[in-house]
């Protein structure tokens, strides 16, 4: 099953849904339902990415602590 899911917080009584090109000229089902507080995304679980597949891929040459301090000093 193909699905497009968007979690939005409308500020008025209108919403616009952009659909992928392959959905054009097809019959679509649109369901709008409010989320309960338990279902609503929180900052803790929103947009998390599993970086475990990247472990060991970066080969760093240099002193990481010096580079980090240099980046921090740019904001002083």
Tally of DSSP β-strands: 0
Mean of residue pLDDT values: 84
Summarize the main sheet: none
Strand content: under 5%
End-to-end distance, in Å?
Answer: 52 Å
Large-scale geometry: elongated
Low-pLDDT windows of residues? none
> Helicity level, as a percent range?
10-25%
By DSSP (H or I, 4+ residues per run), the number of helices equals: 1
Structural class: little secondary structure
Order of helices and strands: H
Radius of gyration: 21 Å
Describe this structure in words.
The chain has 1 helix and no strands. It has 76 residues and is mostly loops. It is 13% helix and 0% strand. The protein has one helix at 64-73. It has a domain at 1-36.
Which features does this protein show?
1 helix, 76 residues, little secondary structure
Give the helix/strand layout.
Blueprint: H1 64-73
Please summarize what this structure is.
The protein is 13% helix and 0% strand. The model has no long low-confidence stretch (mean pLDDT 84).
